[in-house]
Every structure is written in structure tokens, then in C-alpha cells.
Amino acid sequence: GLLKDPGSDAWVKVLSSLDCKYSFEPQAIPCSITWRRNVPSTPSAPDGPMVKTEEEKEVLVLVEPEDFLKRLFSLTQPDLNQVLPLAGLEGSSTKTYSLAVVGLDAYRRYPVFVPLVDVLRVSPLSLLLQALVVLQLWGNTEVLFLDTWQEFGQHVSALTKAIAKRPYKRQLESQELPFCTAGAWASGVRVEKDGTGLWQVWKRQIQQFNRVSPATAAAIAEAYPSPSLLLQAYEECGTEDEKRLLLSDIPVKSDISGKDRRVGPDLSRRIYLFMVSTDPDLVLDLST
Questions:
Q1: What is the pTM of this model?
Q2: For labelling alongside 209, which of 33, 105, 166, 256 has CA 20 to 30 A away?
């Protein structure tokens, strides 16, 4: 059991080092560990409790090595309750069960394997692997084999910390990230085998420059539909000034005012430096 083995005090010491409360209570499944969390509650009355206790879905069951080996044969039949007694437990379908077996190596040559090997005509290792597959795929139950009680304590500690951090991680995942734009911009572009969609990708790459509107990016992409065409245009320019100002006079249609404007020399210079520079430390935007 959890406290019967002479070396079990090692995992209790690990448990004591955690910043949480723990208690030993009778459980529906013998030798199992469950977790509870205090959460804010909306009281139904003015003097009602402000905090309620909720039980987490994880259940860790400690199985004795000898008992685990004796139950292996039941996995050839559709009755997982022989390995994990869940029958008749209220809400068992909502729980996530895992098994922990400490010190199985000492039972490798246990006589219980002999009849199983004779009946199933498989090696002990093969039998064990088949049992793990059935538990994982059929019963959605993970089995963890540990050598010492210290390792068991470390596993309980890691699982406790993961459960404790779960609400915080959910909150982070639900929050909108300020650096991600919403809508169609964030969804990506599908590129077909015939090249359909490459123009949209190129336009979005241009739009990633600072202070570049979708209309401006579209105007540049229409004038030079691909990066290679823009590079070719730079090569045809005679001077550096001509290259830097190549895009500056491209007209941009404004959906708001209806008046055309230009790309301008600043953005033209930034795109040119981005396309031809080999300096990884070059600052493109002088205004930042």
C-alpha cells in the first residue's frame, strides 16, 4: 500500500516538501491518490462560503507488482475492472486514471508468469507489452513502472505541480496575444501546386514592414508580383539612389479618402535594404 512498504516514507518526504496540503483518507479505489482544489464560489446566501472544493479528474493508482502480474491474464478478456476496479464508481467515466507499479523488476521471475507463458505461448516481456497496449488503447490508462519509492514521490510531485498550474495555463491560452493580428491575416494562405496563392504570400510579407497598410502592400505586389521580379528590377537600375527610390512613386489607392497617394521614399528604401542587404544587424526603420 501507500504506507505499508518500509521504503514508502521516502515518497511522503517528497510530498511534504510541496507547497500544498495533503491528507490520508479512505478512497473509492484502494491505494489511490486524488487531488482537490479550492476555487472561488458564488454564495447563495450572504453568509455562505466564498470558497468551494472541487476534485480534479486525475487519479493515480498504486498497484503492487505481484498483484499487477496476477491480473495480466484478465486483459485477454474484455474486463478492465480486473486490473482497475472501476465498476459501480460514480463518475468514473469522467476521470483520467494512471497506474504506478513500484519495484516490478524484483518479480521478473515470479511463478505467476509460468502458466501465462504456457497458455498464451508468448514471452514474459511480450505479455507485458501486450498488456500495456491494451491498457493504453482500450482503457486509456497509462502505466508507469518505477524502481524506487523516491521515483514514485518525484512523479507525484511533478503531477501535483502540473495540476496546480493548469488554471494559469488555461488563462494564458484564452488571452489574446497582442502581437497576433486577428481575422484573415492570422489564418495563413494556402499555396496550390500551380502557384496560386504565392502572390498573397508576397503581399503579406510586404505588409509585415512597420507602418504598411494592406493597400500599400497590394500596390507594391501588383507592380512587382514576386520577389524575383523586384530583384530583377533592382539589377536594371543604374545607381544606388535609383534602387532606393524604385518603389517610391507607385500609386496607392485609399479606400477612405478616395485620393491616390504614393508609397514614398522611406518604405521604398526599407524594402530595398531588406532585399539586398547581407548585414543581419542592419536597422531598417530609422524611426524606431
A1: 0.52
A2: 256
